[in-house]
Amino acid sequence: MEFNDPAGMLRACVERLGEKTGRQYAAMARRGFRLERVTDDVQATGRCRLGGPALLEPGSPWPELGGVPLSPYAVLDTDVLAPWLGDDLPTRPGLLNFFFLDPDLPYEEYRKLDAHAPEAWRVIPADPVRAVETAAPGPARSHPATPVHAAGVVMLPDSWDVDDGDVEFDESAYWGAAALMLEKMDGLDGNTAGGHRAFGWPDTSYASQVTRRDADGPAIHLLQLAEDAELGWGWGDAGTMYFTIPAKAFAAGDFSQAVADMRCC
Q: What backbone torsions phi and psi does residue 264 show, to the nearest 5 degrees?
């Protein structure tokens, strides 16, 4: 769920969850972005875009799985996103290119590949000074290049991404923290699965947790790609694609550990 006003966010959390639990929940907030199409009144944010060719450094190998090239889906220009992210962006990776094995490959070719293998997706940083537009080799597809405006918002984890240890709750009244959130935060549940988002928290409207956790805490959300008819991609039945990365790897700028997760109804 996202807010334009951090003070209003805190107030809503305390009103619905009580002083202590509300402040614990509000402390989980992260800064992120709504990715909006450019209009006459809304300008592109740096080189951020959906679709189009990749922006890679000269000589960078194109990512592939079993000899089949992955398709490019988005580019984030973190240099222009950095002022809003602040400490939420511990390194300066420059441009981030997002790739995934095209689910619309011919069936016979697709079924030979392990779409769940780590090589089926990739997040590749590039120096914005040296990066050049690089067209996708066939049979990978390049969707229409769509510059986007990144609108800064403050995001809270949706109900299914809250663990029992994150907030205090009455265990005799609720089977878990998620149950508390589903009841008390009803009406402020995000409903962003139909939109494209960067950083912050993902929408988790599929009654399951998207954000993996390890000893370093919740993973960092990098990108959420919704079904988009104009761009010509979809992720199953009302599906969404999520790219996340372990917190430790993100802090070190090691995007080779990023994970893609497709969810659908």
A: -150, 165
Q: How far apart are CA 194 and CA 93, in angstroms?
A: 27
| pTM score | 0.94
Is-contact 125 96, C-beta < 8 A?
yes
d(CA 54, CA 131): 9
**Tens digit of each residue's pLDDT (9 = 90 or more) over 59-75:** 999 999 988 999 999 99
Q: Which helix (H) or strand (E) holds 262?
A: strand 259-263
Beta bridge partners of 226: 240
Nearest Cα neighbor of 224 from 239, 207, 209 is 239
DSSP letters, 72-141, are EEEEEEHHHHHHHHGGG--S--BEEEEEE--TTS-HHHHTTS-TTSGGGEEEEEE-TTT-EEEPPPTTS-
- What's the rounded Cα separation, in Å, for the pair 93 and 113? 30
Structural domains present in the chain? 30-155+191-263 (2.30.320.10)
Torsion of CA 77, 83, 87, 88, to 10 degrees: -40
205 token code pair: 């409207």
